[in-house]
């Protein structure tokens, strides 16, 4: 919860008894009682509290309960309040934006990355899977990947993007060869081939391909990483690739490349001459 306690996201709460009833509805919600729970929700929630309901769903439920995503979506479809669904979508964008403000923390925090992935999957299910487009101003997947590559944040951003794209699996509009999907998959394939990319990041792309029933080898690679480089010591690369040059004897005193090797060579030469003189 603390990850999404940002002041930007604060919504006026309804009376405490309403909050309690809503929590009880969601706590007991299953596919078999959807119609009953929809009627209970209609009886208790007033239009002025719809923004809070959207906030509650995204922050307290969707961010944690991935196994219930499909049930929640069906629940809100049966509620027949399109305005609420729009609020839910916008709140999801807002929550992701807040989480990505501290993306450097997500790189090293498993719990942060888990919430990102959960909300990424949720976003894909309420948009792409329902043949609704992503708002590029709110969530530019391609731009996010390129920025993450250059700043060593793929560890947090790439799994998020892959989870969003899982929504393509249920879509009639966004399945390949949809140009938008094709472009992002081509970039993911190019990232997958980056030398020394961490195995878990490669695996995320491969799992997505399996979900979408495509072979990664069949994807055309983009050329968007050309001229771009990950930062030194990037967490996105395997530990061997992150080793500083100094540990390999390539950087010497003062940080100048080659001085360490030159010094070692000089010492070896001196030792050899000393041996000859003896």
TrEMBL record:
<dbReference type="InterPro" id="IPR032191">
    <property type="entry name" value="CNOT1_CAF1_bind"/>
</dbReference>
<dbReference type="GO" id="GO:0000288">
    <property type="term" value="P:nuclear-transcribed mRNA catabolic process, deadenylation-dependent decay"/>
</dbReference>
<dbReference type="GO" id="GO:0000932">
    <property type="term" value="C:P-body"/>
</dbReference>
<dbReference type="InterPro" id="IPR040398">
    <property type="entry name" value="Not1"/>
</dbReference>
<dbReference type="GO" id="GO:0030015">
    <property type="term" value="C:CCR4-NOT core complex"/>
</dbReference>
<dbReference type="GO" id="GO:0060090">
    <property type="term" value="F:molecular adaptor activity"/>
</dbReference>
<protein>
    <recommendedName>
        <fullName>CCR4-NOT transcription complex subunit 1 CAF1-binding domain-containing protein</fullName>
    </recommendedName>
</protein>
<dbReference type="GO" id="GO:0017148">
    <property type="term" value="P:negative regulation of translation"/>
</dbReference>
<dbReference type="Pfam" id="PF16415">
    <property type="entry name" value="CNOT1_CAF1_bind"/>
</dbReference>
<feature type="region of interest" description="Disordered">
    <location>
        <begin position="223"/>
        <end position="256"/>
    </location>
</feature>
<feature type="domain" description="CCR4-NOT transcription complex subunit 1 CAF1-binding">
    <location>
        <begin position="11"/>
        <end position="229"/>
    </location>
</feature>
